[in-house]
Specification:
Length: 327
């Protein structure tokens, strides 16, 4: 049934566990594990420390730094189980999301190797499964690789994704801040292995600059791109995205908050370009709690600003269903 206040069931493809758990749950998790967050001994200071605050984020890397705190608090099996559970339930209750893909990097949740990766991953799966018993949501996980990691570390994450592919891991992604010496193309054999194993392939690219877009398409063989908004200024990239039938995971507020897009007019330009060029895209939050948003709010914002109309929003939902890695 569709409850009052909702139009139809929604799908979200791009949200991170590190930015999707509400502050009160993160606060109890920190306390139950005896974790002290520097300069955040009071609840309200803590909320400020793990959410986007006016004037605090000057560029994408400032935003990514907030994850250092949330990842530390989630670095245990119990932290991950509770986090994953709360995200799936919250998505249904607050946004009527019934198809949900959530992503995280397990190796940024094991305290530098102190905790066992398999335990972290299985606890996350358990959290998702418990929530699916409570709510009619189909949810699954995407494991993330990181630009800051050595290749051997990223290889282990792909290995784990393949190991648990029949237990709720549906894809892989790569993200994190730009790092010196990192070359996206170096990951191509790892992505090949994941694809051959039947996993879905996405990657963070084209968020604050366009440099990785072509590589993730040609060397990693992505089916979707996280963000990809910078392609709007490059006709050759738009053509490549369309020709390869790639779906973009657009996260409007996130791009504005991280200053990857400077103004609403830039966002308007991007969406207009994607529509004109017939490129498939979906609407996502990237991290509703850290960004003080929700999928419902994102859609209302796009409507209110005249960036997309009702019909185009419905098409975004349709695109999300089709591009989902959930079987
Ligand atoms: Zn993201």
């Amino acid at each position: 049934m569709i409850p009052a206040g909702f139009d139809y069931e929604l799908t979200e493809l791009h949200t991170h566990i590190g930015s999707a758990v509400s502050p009160e749950i993160m606060w109890s998790l920190a306390h139950s594990q005896g974790i002290k967050v520097r300069d955040a001994h009071d609840y309200w200071k803590f909320v400020e420390a793990i959410t986007v605050q006016p004037g605090k984020i000057k560029r994408l890397d400032d935003y990514l730094e907030l994850f250092n705190i949330t990842e530390l608090i989630q670095s245990s099996p119990e932290g991950m189980e509770k986090s994953a559970h709360s995200i799936v339930g919250g998505a249904y209750r607050k946004n009527l999301i019934t198809r949900l893909e959530i992503r995280f990097n397990p190796m940024l949740r094991n305290r530098g190797g102190e905790r066992d990766l398999d335990h972290i991953i299985l606890a996350t799966i358990r959290g998702v499964e418990k929530a699916m018993l409570e709510y009619p949501v189909k949810a699954a996980l995407i494991l993330m690789l990181d630009r800051r990691f050595r290749k051997e570390q990223n290889a282990i994450i792909v290995e784990k994704a393949i190991k648990y592919k029949n237990r709720g891991i549906v894809g892989i992604d790569v993200g994190g801040p730009q790092a010196q010496d990192f070359k996206m193309s170096d990951l191509s054999d790892l992505f090949d292995n994941a694809r051959k194993a039947g996993l879905g392939i996405t990657a963070h690219a084209g968020e604050d600059d366009e440099r990785d877009i072509q590589t993730v398409i040609e060397a990693l063989g992505v089916q979707r791109i996280g963000h990809g908004v910078q392609s709007a200024w490059h006709p050759n990239l738009l053509k490549l995205i369309r020709d390869r039938n790639i779906t973009l995971e657009i996260c409007p507020s996130s791009n504005l908050e991280t200053k990857s897009l400077k103004t609403i007019d830039e966002l308007r330009f991007v969406l207009k370009k994607l529509l004109e060029e017939d490129i498939k895209f979906t609407i996502n939050t990237d991290g509703p709690e850290m960004l003080n948003t929700s999928l419902k709010k994102e859609r209302a914002f796009l409507l209110r600003e005249g960036l997309l109309n009702e019909e185009q929003l419905r098409e975004c939902e349709e695109n999300a269903r089709k591009a989902s890695f959930l079987k």
